[in-house]
């Protein structure tokens, strides 16, 4: 994925608005990743979209998977606010009630600029 991030960085440096979609993000029992490293590697982008992995039984087998996604969502929100980035947390990723509803009643969280 390093080449893709490098290409995105070059586009960003040329003044093109860039964004990443970190989804579907797996629970650690599927793939254990360093989320802070991921955020650090894309710190130059203008917008971050984050979403959980849906429709996979292994996700629900992970202990406290709802809090896992709530915590990561909060990390994205805080990272975006600290770094003046736009962000969007996909519907169903956060379950702790911190969200808004769009005109169709879908839960969403948008943060940043």
What are its keywords?
113 residues; alpha/beta
Average of pLDDT: 89
Major sheet: size, sense and barrel closure? 5 strands, mixed
Task: Note the quaternary state here.
Answer: single chain
Helix content: 25-40%
Order of helices and strands: HEHEHHEEE
Spatial strand arrangement across the major sheet: 1-2-3-5-4
N-to-C terminal Cα separation, in Å?
Answer: 27 Å
What's the count of strands?
Answer: 5
Number of separate structural domains:
1
Radius of gyration: 14 Å
Principal-axes shape call: globular
Summed up, the helix count is 4
Q: Class by helix and strand content?
A: alpha/beta
Short précis:
The protein has 113 residues and is of the alpha/beta class. The chain is 37% helix and 21% strand.
Describe the fold and architecture.
It is built from four helices and five strands. Helix content is 37%, strand content 21%. The chain is globular. The chain has one domain. Residues 100-108 have low confidence and may be disordered. By secondary structure, it is α/β, with parallel strands linked by helices. The longest helix is centred in the middle third of the chain and has 18 residues, at 65-82. Strands 1-2-3-5-4 form a five-stranded mixed β-sheet, with helices on one face.
What is the element layout, followed by pairings?
Blueprint: H1 2-13, E1 19-25, H2 35-41, E2 47-52, H3 57-61, H4 65-82, E3 86-89, E4 100-101, E5 107-111
